[in-house]
Amino acid sequence: MAYILEERVNQVSLAGSREKTIVCEKASLAGSVSQRACVFCGSRVVLYPIADALHLIHGPIGCAAYTWDIRGSLSSGPELHRLSFSTDLQEKDVVFGGEKKLYASASELIDTYQPKAAFIYSTCIVGVIGDDVEGVCRQLSAEKSIPVISVQAPGFQGSKKDGYKVACESLFRLVGTQNRPIPKKSINILGDFNLAGELWILMEYYRKMGVHINATITGDGRVDDICNAHNAALNVVQCSGSMSYLAKLMQDHYQVPSMRVSYFGIEDMSDALYDVARFFKDDEMMEKARELVKFELTRLLPQLEWYKNQLKGKRAAIYVGGAFKAISLVKALRLIGVQTVIVGSQTGTTEDYDIIRQLCDEGTVIVDDSNPVELSHFVKEKKADIFIGGVKERPIAHKIGLGFCDHNHERKEALAGYEGMLNFAKEIYATAMSPVWRFTK
Ligand code: SF4
């Protein structure tokens, strides 16, 4: 494995080998060209789906280039989150400071769009020139009578994962600032970004069980709900990589307990419903959850069986942001007859990778914080038929001549819940079995 940099050797392992668990949760190696994005990007991914807030990027226009509009987070109401605003810092601002420009831009935008709150993101250059963004935010909060929150996210301060933490700290400044009575059996849904409307599918399941949804953080998010989030009985946390820190802050300060779930694949989806019913110690709720699962599986399993027969023997590579999602994907692929031969993530923990090692077949490559060179070699060596990942993995797959399934924020197809599982099977089938791959090298 000459293509693995010497300093990264212990971040790669094979399932079933006698090696100890892989090294993870460390800064990316310089020169490795990690698939991880910057701190600012991490904070933006988490906060941007709050649809009635203003999101202003304080930095050069390039930082704002990747707009939220091409991503899939949907709103059932306001759509201010789809607009990408930037202070467009120029050389003159870098020399003389960008505070005046920030104040003028934010003030005008707040007056124009009347948001419920504003998030001001500091990028690399702001961290270097030292603009007093906190001070500007304080002034604007007082003048405009809305929360104006400084998101201190200069890209060089770490990786995308550090950006998640910054976003959680920013959100926590809203939590507890409003108090409205809500039903006793209420939950907050954390870490679902309502890609292709997935959140609405999940909310419907919980509603059928008699669970009240208080705040959705941050998919289809609303500022007022987040301000009142501390009144919920439970935080149900998906994509634990991005939101577990907010859940911890709410546990420590407001004694709101949390549980980690995944909504991908029928096993983990069903567990998510049962676990919530178990938490409320409510027999009627549990019975409704069982009925719901039975109803959904009766429809779904025969259809999945067909895909399983077609896809038997196909091999998949998975490289995603959070390892908890990777675990669900391994199980979901197994259900439709697809063997996982590579599993990796950008932000997995030791605990996550231990679960993956136990779950995967012997010889499966397990990798933390990988790069395009490694991924390309793994995919070829393991003879994968399909690659499941995000926007940065797509070109790797296509350059090799391999089918790709988008399981990240750009997708337009719901993959969560029971209907999401069927969509996933359809997509894997359509991609892996496409005749087009016969014409690639
Ligand atoms: S690394 Fe810095 S300059 Fe680049 S996008 Fe992130 S914040 Fe902007």
The gist of it:
By secondary structure, this protein is α/β, with parallel strands linked by helices. 44% of the residues lie in helices and 15% in strands.
Pattern of helices and strands:
EHEEHHEHHEHEHEHEHEHHEHEHEHEHEH
CATH C-level category of the largest domain? Alpha Beta
Our measurement of the CA-to-CA distance between the termini, rounded to an integer number of angstroms, reads: 23 Å
Radius of gyration: 22 Å
CATH fold category name of the largest domain:
Rossmann fold
The total count of helices amounts to 16
- Inertia-based shape: globular
The fraction of residues in strands falls at: 5-15%
The distinct bound ligands, ions and cofactors come out as: iron/sulfur cluster
Mean pLDDT: 94
Low-confidence stretches: none
- Strand adjacency order, main sheet: 1-12-11-10-13-14
The CATH superfamily of the largest domain is Nitrogenase molybdenum iron protein domain
Structural class: alpha/beta
Lay out the secondary structure:
Blueprint: E1 12-14, H1 39-47, E2 53-58, E3 85-86, H2 91-96, H3 99-113, E4 117-122, H4 124-129, H5 133-144, E5 148-152, H6 160-172, E6 186-190, H7 198-208, E7 212-217, H8 223-227, E8 234-237, H9 240-254, E9 258-260, H10 266-280, H11 283-311, E10 315-320, H12 323-335, E11 339-345, H13 350-359, E12 365-368, H14 372-381, E13 386-389, H15 394-400, E14 403-406, H16 417-432
Helix pairs in contact: 1-6, 3-5, 6-9, 10-11, 11-16, 12-13
Bound molecules: iron/sulfur cluster.
